[in-house]
């Protein structure tokens, strides 16, 4: 059975001290009452990662980065390589988040380099996809997201593709308080799974975790996660509060 995953994307929030406190709180709450069937992941800013790794019990909470460099190493001031991320003890890396695509020119060519380096260094990419509002309004979201796949992750070998986690994040729902309806989320997740089946076969599609992201919170997680093709969430704002985050982690429970 595919993995259920709830990953917190802290984005550019919290000081190191604040982030370590948050990690401690999340760890304590997961240990106390987290759903053992859900893999919990926290993705703090780079400078927090080593500290967070040392705080959490890696059997219960995994750590990820929010990005990595497109080059393995060298004269790239300000960049953090996939190898460096791996050397902290982190296991995951978010790649292709819409904010990176929009503000930092993470286009398909750049993402392909990042994906290759993340995979070569044993990190699990959480590959983000999703359409902007105008595309949703035009009704061409399926084609749009499938094209994102074709330009990036559909170029991986089947062996590498199996290592990915996918996050569908309709851009119009990120940080806006607007959530895709449960039906909209299920419809897109089912479509993506069918596109994966077409490309790599049904067994691979059934084994791929597809998370929903975009204003997922303590009140709507249950409904979203009740869908057969929604395998968890990539959570922004609501992951900055340990209580809300835990409620989302426990969103699969009846
Ligand atoms: P949000 O962000 O939950 O604040 O909408 C989700 C994300 O961008 O990962």
Protein model, in words:
This protein has 12 helices and 8 strands. The protein is α/β, with parallel strands linked by helices. The chain has one domain: TIM Barrel, CATH 3.20.20. An 8-stranded parallel beta barrel has the order 1-2-3-4-5-6-7-8, surrounded by 6 helices. Helix 1 packs parallel to helix 12 (242-249) and helix 7 packs across helix 9 (182-200). Bound molecules: 2-phosphoglycolic acid. 2-phosphoglycolic acid binds next to strand 8.
Number of strands: 8
Q: What's the number of helices?
A: 12
Which shape, going by the Cα principal axes?
Answer: globular
CATH topology: TIM Barrel
Report the sheet-strand fraction.
Answer: 15-25%
User: What does the oligomeric state look like here?
Assistant: single chain
User: Which consecutive residue ranges, at least 5 long each, have pLDDT under 50?
Assistant: none
**Tell me about the biggest sheet?**
8 strands, parallel, barrel
Q: What is the topological layout?
A:
Layout: E1 4-9, H1 16-33, E2 38-43, H2 49-55, E3 61-65, H3 82-87, E4 92-95, H4 98-103, H5 108-120, E5 124-129, H6 133-138, H7 141-151, H8 158-161, E6 165-168, H9 182-200, H10 202-207, E7 210-213, H11 221-225, E8 232-235, H12 242-249
Parallel strand pairs: 1-2, 1-8, 2-3, 3-4, 4-5, 5-6, 6-7, 7-8
Helix pairs in contact: 1-12, 7-9
This protein binds 2-phosphoglycolic acid.
């Amino acid at each position: 059975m595919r993995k259920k995953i709830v990953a917190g994307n802290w984005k550019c929030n919290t000081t190191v001290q604040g982030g370590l406190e948050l990690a401690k709180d999340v760890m304590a709450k997961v240990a106390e009452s987290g759903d053992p069937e859900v893999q919990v992941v926290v993705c703090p800013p780079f400078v927090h990662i080593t500290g967070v790794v040392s705080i959490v019990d890696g059997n219960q909470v995994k750590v990820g980065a929010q990005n990595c460099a497109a080059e393995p190493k060298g004269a790239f001031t300000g960049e953090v390589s996939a190898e460096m991320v791996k050397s902290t003890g982190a296991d995951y890396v978010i790649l292709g988040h819409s904010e990176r695509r929009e503000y930092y020119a993470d286009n398909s060519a750049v993402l392909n380099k990042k994906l290759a380096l993340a995979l070569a260094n044993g990190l699990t990419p959480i590959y983000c996809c999703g359409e902007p509002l105008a595309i949703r309004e035009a009704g061409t979201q399926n084609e749009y997201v499938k094209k994102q796949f074709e330009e990036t992750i559909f170029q991986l070998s089947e062996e590498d593709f199996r290592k990915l986690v996918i996050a569908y994040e309709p851009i119009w729902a990120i940080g806006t308080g607007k959530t895709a309806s449960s039906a909209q989320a299920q419809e897109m997740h089912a479509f993506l799974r069918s596109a994966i089946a077409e490309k790599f076969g049904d067994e691979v599609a059934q084994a791929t975790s597809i998370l929903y992201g975009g204003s997922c919170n303590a009140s709507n997680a249950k409904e979203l996660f009740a869908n057969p093709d929604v395998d968890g969430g990539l959570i922004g704002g609501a992951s900055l509060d340990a209580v809300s985050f835990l409620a989302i982690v426990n969103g699969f429970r009846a």
